[in-house]
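Narrative summary of target 7.
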Amino acid sequence: MPNISSRTSNLGTENAFVVLEEVNELAAQGRDILSFCIGQPDFNTPSNICQAAQKAIEEGKHGYTPSAGIPELREAVAAYLSRTRDIQVEPDWVVIANGAKPFIGFTLLSVTDYGKGHEVLYPNPGFPIYASQTLAHGAVPVPLHLLESRNFAFDVDEMESRITPDTKLLILCSPHNPTGGVLTRETLEKVAEVALRHNLWVYSDEVYSRMVHDEKFESIASIPGMMERTIICDGASKTYAMTGWRLGYAVNETLAPYFATWMTNTDSCASHVTQWAIVEALNGPQEQPDHMMGIFKKRRDLIVDALNGLDGVTCLSPGGAFYVWPNVTELCKMVGSENSEILRKRLLHEAGIAVLADIHFGERVPGEGQHLRFSYATSNDNIIEGMERLKHFIKTQRANTSA
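Modeled conformation, tokenized:
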């Protein structure tokens, strides 16, 4: 057999889907598993959006579109981002893709060169595709450690110390996956000063922008001097419960034509029908997505209170998204698990609770202990039952360990 390229054989993945496959296998065997491992709203797509898609099908909107997207959607995105970020976005700066994820790769392909040692700063723990795509496209990933003492932000001075002449791109994610941390305006202003001083591109992953629970969402693009060097990336999956519809968008005046060319080279264009659905999502009534966001906030409070009531667990209240990142260092010791990944496997097989471990999101941050990620994109009943199972597991294992 011919060989597989090292780029492909060493390609990382998104472990949420790996664990989900394991959960599905156990469920098929008749096991009762409560899943907290996937970041997917447990709501149906709002009906007005579905009706817009049906209308597009009925009207014969089935063919190719411009690679950058239909003009109506580019206009809707420009208006939406201008309104929600306190910036001025022109439709020509917008490019549409099949989900937000392609823009990670498009950005890397557009601002770094393969094999030249160009470096990319990215949050750790973080969305695993940041590092895997950086490596796949021949650049060097440089982690920025998120600290519990900073509400899962990084030290900006430490960030600047990691910048070299080869640093080309800084990746930000706020609200953040997996910790739920939200970068404050003050922090973003400090980051902007560094980015301007070192002439960096900034990829701002804002797919959870509507899920800021306590404060106003802030985009680094709104800081003077940052719009031209920031790639804003957002999409429909989280806000409008449209994960399977696959549509995202990115904005940057300089890079938009290059992103469109990458779309031509890869997917030709995003789904024509889905594009019309998102026109309705952005321009239509917002009551349903706002209602979903309110429910997520209540679930956050429910799961944080429950986790903090368990022996061996401490959990900060996340400012956004639909994830909690509890510290389980003491719990691992109490139940005789060497680390969070071993604990994660035990919770799945012994307690019927599916979660993700910190190592699914990058290397463990030195001195930060052990963590798990729970997604609270599930019902109150599931959260309550899951926490009861966890409480019972802790009680049983403590008894076994001390026996």
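The first strand starts at residue 34 and ends at 35.
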